[in-house]
Write a structure and sequence with these properties.
The complex is a heterodimer of chains A (210) and B (117). Chain A contains ten helices and no strands. Chain A has 210 residues and is mostly helical. In chain A, α4 crosses α5. In chain B, 6% of the residues are buried. Chain B contains five helices and no strands. Helices cover 67% and strands 0% of the residues of chain B. The radius of gyration of chain B is 42 Å and the shape is elongated. By secondary structure, chain B is mainly alpha-helical. The chains are: A mainly alpha (210), B mainly alpha (117). At the A-B interface, α3, α4, α6, α7 and α10 of A face α1 and α2 of B.
Chain lengths: 210, 117
């Protein structure tokens, strides 16, 4: 959500660098974007602590970039910040691939996902199914390639358009489409049993026409 | 076992999107965000280490380490003890003298032995 604060941040930033006003504006902008960036990092990294560190890193990088004398006015500060956050998360995911001792998300993060999924389901069976989908989805997403993971998160959780995703990931729209298609294909392979189960349940509970 | 090819890509995407959308956003407390902001402010106030300088220092340290390793290896090689000499000086001189006296090299002597009765 880009407010007037973010718009005004984009204007004349270079001129304001090193002033108190700059610090205050940055603080207000950070407060308005912080939750969104943290949730994005959490979805990308599937780890609360890692997401916290990535969010801090993102704002630190943004601050450093804005304080540079050559920093130009930003047309869309929110999109620019999202790009920094996504790249920060991708860097962390890349380095995580070497950390063979932490392949799976932490138990507390996994249980938080499951509890969230169950919270919205009306009855016990639905709650169980919602938990299963959330668990399987969170695992399946980690098996996507980094670009597919980023494109999927931006598309489905941030509700970004293909053009926006392309700008954030610095790719062509066509390449983004391919990444999203492949991501869906991989998830289809991983979750097809749940899809069929859901369809069957849906058919069972559908009212029969006389 | 049902084949995944029987699932229409668009249908599956719609189903997936529906489930992803139904997942509620994780709760992020105001206290957590405030604490995070305080950490960020602390980081902003702290001067950041110059990464380029750190990289240079690291490269230099590696170079010095490699040079020192090479030097140590070379010294060890030079200081390696020579093959212990078991011959005494007298023995050496007598051997040299015998070599000087004979016109043929010692290696031929066994061949001469073949023709002697």
């Amino acid at each position: 959500m880009m407010g007037a604060m973010a718009d005004s941040l984009g204007a004349n930033l270079a001129a304001m660098a090193d002033t108190r006003e700059f610090g205050a504006q940055f603080g207000a902008w950070m407060a308005s974007e912080q939750r969104r960036i943290y949730l994005l990092c959490r979805r990308m990294l599937q780890d609360g602590e890692d997401a916290d560190a990535a969010t801090q890193d993102t704002f630190l990088k943004a601050w450093q970039a804005l304080k540079r004398p050559e920093s130009k006015n930003l047309d869309d500060a929110g999109k620019w910040l999202t790009r920094i956050a996504v790249n920060t998360c991708l860097d962390r995911l890349r380095s995580r691939r070497w950390q063979f001792w932490r392949k799976r998300p932490k138990a507390e993060d996994e249980s938080a996902i499951l509890n969230l999924a169950a919270a919205t389901a009306p009855n016990a069976e639905d709650q169980f199914f919602a938990r299963q989908i959330a668990q399987r989805l969170s695992r399946a997403v980690t098996r996507l390639s980094l670009r597919q993971h980023a494109a999927f998160t931006l598309r489905h959780y941030e509700d970004r358009s293909l053009t926006e995703i392309a700008e954030i990931l610095n790719l062509d729209v066509g390449t983004v489409k391919v990444h999203l298609f492949r991501a869906t294909e991989k998830l289809r392979e991983e979750l097809h049993d749940l899809y069929f189960h859901d369809r069957e349940e849906h058919e069972k509970h559908k009212p029969h026409k006389p | 076992m049902k084949n995944t090819n029987h699932i229409n890509h668009d249908d599956f995407e719609k189903w997936l999107r529906g489930h992803v959308e139904s997942l509620p956003e994780p709760e992020v407390s105001a206290e957590f965000l405030a604490a995070q902001r305080r950490s960020i402010y602390r980081l902003l106030d702290k001067p950041r280490p110059n990464r380029a300088a750190m990289r240079w220092a690291l490269s230099l340290a590696m170079l010095v380490l490699m040079f020192a390793g090479g030097l140590t290896l070379e010294r060890r090689h030079k200081a390696a003890p020579a093959v212990p000499v078991t011959l005494s000086d007298d023995q050496l001189f007598s051997d040299l003298n015998a070599m000087e006296q004979t016109s043929e090299p010692k290696a031929i002597q066994p061949i001469h032995g073949l023709f002697q009765e």
